[in-house]
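Continued from yesterday's entry.
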Amino acid sequence: MKLFLFTLLFLGSVLAISSCKYESETNMNSEEMEQERQVRAFKKLSAGEISEAAFEKGKEIKELILSKKDSFSIDDCHKDFQNLLDEKTSDLVIEAKIVCDAADLKEEKAKMVWEAYTYNIQNEIALEDNLQEINGSFYYTIPKMMEGNLSILLIKIDKKKLIVSL
């Protein structure tokens, strides 16, 4: 009888200890799940915040390209520079190339950016990077003078992928 009571007491203790441990693991999992849910929760971003993030990402990509290729020449026209990007950045970039002629730009808004750069050159106004949203993508443009002619380093950023990455 004593052995039976001792066994019963022992099994009861083991059961009580294991159930307490299981409960604390469940609580930890619940806390971890809540943290994960908060991380994955939708964030409401304004158009301005998205544009600002696109401009910053464009600058980051520009620096990455310029760190690997310090100068450009007319021979670089139409070359694709996505191979200079790391895997994470490359996923956001649809296109990264040098445009040496406005005729190479398909979208009217992109041609207007070219015309604005041309106007700035003619009126001796400083050339600065530009960001435009065109057809669901961001066009980050960096003006360059190559052999006396205007060229643009065009970085086309996928808007949807950018938003997801924020």
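--- second protein ---
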Amino acid sequence: MFHAIEETYELWKVPPHKYIKKIHKDGMAKILIPLSPLSCITISVSIEQIFTFGKETVLKIPHSTQIEFLSKRKYPRIEVAIKALLRTMETKPSVVHSVRILDLSEHGMKIALNDCVLDSAHPIYMRFQIDHSTIELEGEIVGVHKEEDGCYYNIKISKIDEKAQFLINK
């Protein structure tokens, strides 16, 4: 569990468990950041110092912006590289764009498109595959970031079926 940040270190409170006595200074530890009830991210870290306060154990580890970012997000995003088809839902004629999903979370994603052509006023429809299953969802553009190589869009998922949601959460 994330506890606090110093300038170059983070402090993590260790929940009580039977192997807590095997943790030692200059050793390695694994930090588990839950993503859903069925999955988590595991990050290996080096232990700089161990503090014990009664029954509480706190580890001092080198600061990591990745760990800080993942531990503070309500719905952590996982970096992916998934090709998808995207269609805006209220434009005629309907245009289909090939996009890349760069990160994915339980309720949103970041996509990349070579051209800055999407309008945030229109809902979108997306289709892609995870684990050989087709995911179809509706969403809305909640942010746009323009770069030299194209546009990056933050998408909020607004409509998705239970099976597709399960696969994303997994």
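Helices lie at 65-72, 162-169. The radius of gyration is 20 Å. Will compare against the first tomorrow.
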